[in-house]
Amino acid sequence: MKKMFKFTGAMLLAVSMLTACAGEKSGGSSEGDGKRITLYSPETPDFTKELAKKYEEVIGGNVDVHYAGTNVLVNQMLAEKENPKADVWYGGGGILPFEAAVERGILASYIPDFAADWDITENGIKLKHEDGKYVGVEIFVLGFSYNPELVSEEEAPKTWEDLLDPKWKGKIQFPNPAASGTATLMVMDQMMRQGEDKAWEYFEKLVDQANSTPDSGSAPTKAVAMGEAHIGIGFDFMAYEQKAKGETVDFIVPDKTPVLVNPATLIEGAPNAEGGKKFIDFLLSKEAQQIMADWYHIPINPEVESKTPLSIDKVKEVAVDLDIDWVNENYDRVRNEWKDKFQ
């Protein structure tokens, strides 16, 4: 891979600051081009509030943050396609919703200098879009949360097949793939590895093991922390964030599993495209990456150390090579088939 993560001074250029919560407007004078940046993000409002504070400290300016779920924001961007309101879209549980949005014509092309020398894909991790429609700013790993008071680390499952052990019957939770992108990723990964027929057989058994399949991607991890499940399927940061709050939960990285970047993108026809580009630059800066690390996300900037036991060097060895074209072609079909089979 060519010079991945080469740091440049351009990361500190930006024109605006993030606001604390959904739709809140920041005060003060604006620097740079004098225009507000409008950010659409499904990320935690408190998390974006921290980004806002740091952005104000480093750069100054004005950014309006609009918070909603990923699907809501995508539908809003589609409705606004002829008259875009957003400049930047950041976050959404990985690349899948961004890949789906590429074909809908709402994403512009922009790759920061910081990421210019990255390969498109390394060790199964797609780092940026081949036409520059998005760039990864952090790393998410799909795996297993577990409650150490109920399950020892040695006993905890280490592979996806381990989840079918009879000892876990009635003790597992995973999100509903008909509603959760996190769980849809899990289903499609198994289909690409086993073929569809064997994957459906696998999930018939896994459904029988579960005591609940909530719609929320983070709900199984919270259930594990509360002792309502022994094992939960979700992203790594969900477990480590709960653990940092004092909850009884830890995380296992399976031997082979999806590892995704969580991206940012410039919106096609953005009212403040130049400001949007500078904001995406900022997301890859050391200052912004430190905030991501402090929220237990795996940073992509090598100058920032992860607050969890995981790093991109550690997880790239377990990353499966996802066929993104196949995912895009079959995403809706698979979700609908899950609904027909299990709901």
Automatic annotation (TrEMBL):
Question: Can you supply one Gene Ontology CC term for this chain's record?
Answer: outer membrane-bounded periplasmic space
User: Tell me, what is an example of a GO biological process annotation in this record?
Assistant: thiamine transport
InterPro entries cross-referenced by the UniProt entry: Ferric-bd
PANTHER family per UniProt: ABC TRANSPORTER SUBSTRATE-BINDING PROTEIN, THIAMINE-BINDING PERIPLASMIC PROTEIN-RELATED
**Keywords, ordered alphabetically:** Signal
UniProt organism field: Cytobacillus solani
**Per its record, how is this protein called by name?**
ABC transporter substrate-binding protein
Q: Which Gene3D superfamilies match?
A: Periplasmic binding protein-like II (3.40.190.10)
Q: Name one GO molecular function term.
A: thiamine binding
The uppermost taxa in this organism's lineage are: Bacteria, Bacillati, Bacillota, Bacilli, Bacillales
Signal sequence segment? 1-22
